[in-house]
Structures are given as C-alpha cells and as structure tokens.
Amino acid sequence: MIALLIRDLRLAVRSGGGFGLGLAFFLIVVVLVPFAVGPRADLHRVIAPGVLWLGALLACLLSLDRIFALDHEDGSLDLLATAPLPLEALTCIKALAHWLTTGLPLVLAAPVLGVLMNLPAPGYVPLILSLALGTPALSVIGTFGAALTVGVRRGGLLMSLLVLPLYVPTLIFGAEAARRGAEGLPYTTPLIMLAGITCGTIALLPFASAAVVRVNLR
Amino acid sequence: MASLWEYANPRKFIATSDRVLPWVGAAALVSLATGLIWGFFFTPEDYRQGASVKIIYLHVPAALMAINAWLMMLVASLIWIVRRHHVSALAARAAAPVGAVMTVIALVTGALWGQPIWGTWWVWDPRLTSFLILFLFYLGYIALWSAIEDGDTAADLTSVLCLVGSVFALLSRYAVLFWNQGLHQGASLSLDKEENVADVFYLPLLVCIAGFSLLFVALVLMRTQTEIRARRMRALLARERML
Fold it and tell me: How many CB atoms lie within 10 A of CB A74?
C-alpha cells in the first residue's frame, strides 16, 4: 500500500506538472477575481472566504481525471486490480495521493492568498481548518467521479457534471464555516457538519468507487 | 398466485403493459383534463394572489412527481443491483428524462409565479436550490447512461450513481436549509391540517396530482417498452451481422 502511495506521489510530481497544476489554477482564480469585481477592499473582505473556497474546489476538480485515466490508458489499472490488494484500499490510496498532491498544497497556500483577498484577521484559522477538513471529502468524492467515468473516452466534462452536485454540501458547510469565522461569528457548527461529511464520505464512498472500478474493468 | 418477479420477463412485461397502457393513458388524460379545467376555470381567485394562485395546479404536482421519479429510480436501481432484472434497469433509464422534465416544469412555473408574487424570478432559497441540484443529478444520470455503450455496464454504473446521488441529495437538502432560511412557503399539502391550502383549491389539486401520477406511470411504461424493443432490435441486428 505504501509502495503504491509512493509510486502515485512520484508520478504526480514528475509527470509534467500535475502537482503544481491545481495550485497554479487556485492562484489564477484568486488573482483574477479582483480584476473582475474591481479593486474595492471592502468588497474583497466580504467575498474572500467564498472565493477562496470556490478556487480550492475548482482546482480539485481540474486534477480529478488524472486519478484513474493515466493508469487506465497504459493498462496498469488492470494490474493493480489483480494485485493482492482489495480495490477498496486501492481507491483509498488513490484519493489519499490526490489529496496530498492537490488538497494539502491548497490548504497551505490559502493563507497567503487570503492576504491578497484582504481576508480579515480572525478569518485565517477557520479558513485553514475548514479547508483542511473539507478537501479530503473533495478528493474522495472526486475519486468516485473519476472511477465512474474511467471507461468513457474524453470523460472530463461528464465527470464534472456528475461530481458537481455531489460537491454542493461540502462547499456549503466549508464556505459557511470560513465566512462565519471571517465575520467573527462562532463557526463550530458548520465545521462539525463538514467533519461529519468528510468522515461519512471516507467511510462509505471507497466501496462505491471500488464497485464502479470493478464494473468498468469487466 | 404468480410472483411479482415474473414481470421482470421482458415478454411478459410488454404483454401486460400493452393491456394496461390504454387504460392508464385514458385515466391520465381524463383526470388531467378535469383537474386542470376545474382548477383554472371553476375555482375562485385567491384574495391576495389573484389569478396567479392557479399555477399551483401545475407546480405542486410537477414538484411532487420530480421527487417521486427519483425515488422510483432508486428502487429500480436497487432491484437491478440485487436481482439483476433488465426491465428494472431500463425502467429507471426510462423514468429519468420524465423526472427531469417534471423538475423543469416545477422550476419554470415557480419562477413565473415568483415574479409577480415575490418580485423576483429566482432566489437562492432552500427549496429552489435543492430542486436545482436535483435537476443537475438528473442531467448527470442521463448523460452517464448515454455516454456508455454497453448496456449492462451503463446500468451498473448509473445504479451506483443513483444510490450515491440519493444520499447526497438528502445531504444537500439539509445543507441548503442550514445555509439559508428561505422565502418559500410551507408545504401546500401535508398531514398537518393547519398548513394546507383552503378547501376550494384542495380537491382539484388532488385530481391534478392523480393525473400527473397516472401520466408518469403511462410515460414510464411506454418508454420502458421502447427501451426493451430498441434493445431487442440491436440484438437482432447484431445476430444478422454474424450470419
């Protein structure tokens, strides 16, 4: 399992910038928003948590089809499926690798970009907490979406359509926690709901993903 | 007494539904016609909303059927996963576009009603938002069905998507409730007598709901037959090519 994780991480780092892609996209979104809404610091302060969460979500979405597509193309997915490792574990590893290469850098980069967006000082801790709790759910849900469309050629758009409604609850609770934090309100409730969603997806979705991979490899 | 599962045989299903379909279709037409005409022409106008209250006869049944269609697809998907009856998977596929259209009807009539009454076409209100998400689910489901060529694979994948989607649809419902307290009034029909619409509107509304349900059953039966026949035709063509 650890060997597989290291292999996935190494592939992500070495194969043509898959690692920095999400981060760069996050940066682009956050840099372009002020140009779109105008240079008003008071407005930025209000929309900062939402924009940061949305940027993180889109950056996650962008890198999803790398999870299974490359392995499917060169046939290593079939080999991995016959390896003495349950497919559920395989999908967990894939989700973990995706989170380590996109989710974690986003969490670390968010405070820096928060400065660019004029995020109020009390907002930093809830923003980082909500991203750290929420991005694993994004990775796990995304792995399910990627597994669904692995057999479809050019399935990127289809996958976005499938994953989009599944992302809604995570986005709502995550952005709500960050927003309440930025406004100085108590933010424990949405954070707990977010943690609940993350735990639930980690507990249940790998089974669905594995079932779907099995169908697609048949 | 024959088992229910006998109807999972496509031949038996087509024979039975052929016999039932004219009756269901006729009943749907009659009840829709009576309900809508009664509702539109023979009920008083509301003292605050005027004539626009009458959109309720389209809006409420369509919204109800949009949710019920997803429930039916969920049950059909479960049957496919557990017992692998092809008719069940095809029925789920047949129901999806009908449900999507019902969702669109509910959203559009709601917008038409909301413009004069609330003064806006759209608000990010829990009920409206969760219906939009439901519509996205329908779109994804239909797209996944049509993206995959092999029938059984597509049925398997969409069934899993339907199960996972149902869980997330519920979750989204509560998430958007938490996110925003809305503009939408309470349920028009519920077991709680206090909240219900006034009695004058009640009976024609019930007739309309019956009409929409019958229409849904008729459409799903018809579309399922079409799916079965299309699949048969493909099998025949494939055999011809082999000879």
Answer: 9
Q: Where are the alpha helices (DSSP H) in chain A?
A: 2-14, 18-37, 41-62, 69-73, 76-82, 87-98, 104-116, 124-148, 156-182, 188-217
Residue in A201, A76, A213, A54 with CA at minimum distance from that of residue A146? A213
- ipTM value for the complex: 0.85
Instruction: Please answer whether residues B65 and B99 qualify as being in contact, where contact means their C-beta atoms are separated by less than 8 angstroms.
Output: yes
pLDDT of residue B53: 75
Amino acid at A95: A
pLDDT digits (tens, 9 = 90+) for A116-175: 888 888 888 899 999 999 999 999 999 999 999 888 877 788 888 999 999 999 999 999
Cβ A8 vs Cβ A94: under 8 Å: yes
Please, what sign has the CA dihedral across residues B85, B90, B96, B98? negative
Express each pLDDT in B87-112 by its tens digit. 889 999 999 999 999 999 999 998 88
**Closest chain A residue by Cα to residue B159:** A212
CA distances from B235 to A185, A203, B94, B156, B239 (A): 63, 41, 19, 20, 6
Query: Which residues in chain A have Cβ-Cβ distances shorter than 8 Å to B140?
Result: 158, 161-162, 164-165
The backbone torsions φ and ψ at residue B46, rounded to the nearest 5 degrees and listed phi first, read: -70, 145
Task: Tell me how far apart the alpha carbons of residues A96 and A9 are, in angstroms, rounded to a whole number.
Answer: 10
DSSP-based three-state secondary structure for A48 = helix
Contacts of B230 (CB under 8 A, 6+ apart): none
Does position B198 have pLDDT exceeding 70, yes or no? no
Chain A residues with CB under 8 Å of B179 CB are: 172, 176
- B7's tokens: 């109807």
Place of tokens 């009659």: B30
Q: Are B209 and B60 in contact (CB under 8 A)?
A: yes
**CB under 8 A, 24+ apart: contacts of A184-189:** A184/A120, A184/A122, A187/A126, A187/A130
A93 touches A8 (CB < 8 A): yes
Give how far A10 is from chain B: nearest CA, Å.
Answer: 31
Bridge partners, residue B50, by sequence: B46
- Whether residues B147 and A155 touch (CB distance < 8 A) is answered with yes
